[in-house]
Specification:
two-stranded antiparallel ribbon; 2 domains; alpha/beta
């Protein structure tokens, strides 16, 4: 299984380049930039990195076709791909924060729309858009010639939280990106992705299965938990009751769900202090839905990552937050050697 990293959206391109160079030296396969509203652009931030590395794969996570038409997405992606001699990837999503910020209204058939956007990207990458694409949601009316794209084509992932999306992406995309599901309950996601893979024209074709996972292992354990608590609002499908019920008792689940806004507030005020929730409960949430702790907890987290691999992941993307270079060094020195053997 390959280990990848995801960076915060507030890092300038110079810092993305610095982290990417070190990631490549450690043998990390890929780096993802975060595509958020009112932040550094997920594509442009990778340009300095493209010129400064030779093996590292990289791309934006994730881009919604509702914020940017698939044709414009593929133009940006293939441009970056040519600049890096064929080392790009992208994850296509239904869109949440960006779509909300732009006050956009997604179509009712979300799975269909994401499928059509992936199909347009793949057709363009194979230079097969000379004929119009007539989708129900997305269309390409004029012939598009991508013969200028000479490098190895990018890898196209779809992101998925629900099983219908997982099955569709397993059937049409190069890879499926699962969102923050602990290894103990990831089997149903893998099963649904494989259902989609089995419906491909070539079911033996390799399809990447990746997953987002929060990484909060630091030299300062208290700081690690505070950082992890700050991010809890976006873990486990926004603390979905169905997922919570697998790990917490009914009273704890109700307390968490009833106070979801407190988790959101803790993210925006950057405090890591979740009002109305006992810190002990918040910390247990961190331990279930992320890798959180001090250096003494690394072996425990390596065993958890091995469970992801045993479940069927081919890649695992670790999300870095504050002090990303420290986190990268901890991963590079302790995690990568275990999974590069």
């Amino acid at each position: 299984m390959d280990i990848e990293i995801i960076l915060e959206p507030n890092l300038p391109p110079s810092q993305v380049k610095e982290l990417g160079i070190v990631a490549e030296e450690y043998g990390i396969r890929a780096l993802w930039t975060s595509n958020y509203f009112s932040h550094w652009d997920g594509f442009l931030s990778l340009v300095p990195l493209a010129a400064s590395t030779k093996k590292l794969v990289f791309g934006p996570l994730a881009v919604s076709p509702f914020e940017m038409h698939p044709l414009k997405i593929v133009n940006a992606l293939l441009t970056l791909n040519e600049m890096s001699n064929g080392r790009t990837q992208i994850a296509i999503c239904a869109g949440e924060g960006n779509v909300t910020a732009m006050d956009l209204i997604p179509p009712k058939k979300i799975v269909l729309a994401v499928r059509e956007s992936i199909e347009i990207l793949l057709a363009a990458c194979h230079n097969q858009l000379q004929e119009p694409y007539e989708g129900e949601v997305f269309r390409v009316k004029l012939p598009c010639d991508y013969s200028w794209a000479k490098s190895k084509r990018p890898t196209i992932y779809g992101t998925a939280y629900k099983h219908m999306m997982m099955r569709m992406e397993g059937r049409v995309a190069d890879g499926v990106y699962i969102g923050a599901i602990p290894p103990e309950i990831i089997d149903s996601a893998i099963e649904n992705i494989k259902k989609g893979i089995n419906k491909r024209e070539n079911p033996n074709q390799h399809v990447h299965i990746n997953s987002f996972w929060g990484w909060h292992i630091k030299k300062d354990k208290e700081k690690a938990y505070r950082e992890s608590r700050r991010e809890l609002a976006w873990r486990a499908r926004k603390l979905d009751p169905e997922l919570l019920s697998l790990f917490f008792n009914p009273d704890e689940c109700k307390l968490i769900v009833d106070n979801f806004q407190c988790f959101v507030d803790a993210y925006f005020d950057r405090s890591g202090n979740v009002k109305n929730i006992p810190e002990e409960l918040s910390n247990r949430l961190c331990e279930v839905f992320t890798s959180t702790g001090g250096l003494e907890d690394i072996d425990r987290e390596i065993e958890r990552i091995k469970k992801f691999e045993e479940a069927g992941l081919t890649q695992l993307s670790l999300r870095l937050h504050d002090d990303p270079m420290e986190a990268l060094q901890i991963i590079g020195e302790n995690v990568i050697p275990v999974f590069s053997q």
